[in-house]
């Protein structure tokens, strides 16, 4: 479930499924996209409910996919909406960000973490990888070497390691305060700065390839995904 709360300068978007660590189902991708696309506020603050930020894609949904490429493309449209929207998206990671949760954070304009935040791409262990634009954005955020090691190993980064590698820009007790700080700028200036720094021309071709490979891997590792889902 995706909830929104509007104030004068900040829209708060909450992934509210704490019993499943805020894992995203297919309908959530469109709901997140809409929540960002319709924000009238200059800043949108993205968070997770409970003690996790987002566990990524719900593996029950992944195991049942008839068209995994379409699922990947829906996730890419969602993260593209975050990256391309007129609202500045500040992502506050408190607790675990895994898989698609990392990709969701990568799409945001500003990523901040609490001391309790952790990040990992564990799906490599059962034959998958992040296909919501993560392979495009990760080496832009980290160095290529750090990005490869992080994605290939599946290891967990704590908040300090995320700060060292550039995955987050700050460690704070209250990520919402960063959204409020940014919202103090003039809306037209915030919008202009975001779009100039975000200008990219060839992401679409990269993401088409990403979605196709994701589909191949879902089909090839269906048994492993089903086993992981049952844990």
TrEMBL record:
- Coiled-coil intervals: none
Could you identify this protein by its name? Enoyl-CoA hydratase
| Similarity comment text for this entry | Belongs to the enoyl-CoA hydratase/isomerase family.
Q: What organism does the record attribute this protein to?
A: Halorubrum aidingense JCM 13560
